[in-house]
Amino acid sequence: MAQPRLNPRAKPGMLVPAESFFTSKAPVAIGESIEYMITLPKAPGTRSDVRLRCVGKVIRGEQPARYAATLERFEFVRQKN
Length: 81
Description:
Layout: E1 5-6, E2 11-15, E3 19-23, E4 33-40, E5 50-62, E6 66-70, E7 73-77
Parallel strand pairs: 1-4
Antiparallel strand pairs: 2-3, 3-6, 4-5, 5-6, 5-7
């Protein structure tokens, strides 16, 4: 099985419970496993943003370069101080 890949040219869009929407300058194949990062802005009174490393599969594409991917699993990424 191919390892999920991080697409450095992809920009996150909207996050919903079962899928994420993103744009990419490079073509992404439907069904492809991907790895992507999501940054949630810090909440008032906290020190830093929350970063999530996510793994999923591309489930659909729309023109010009918009895609939707599943959110199959994620892990928190610790900030280095």
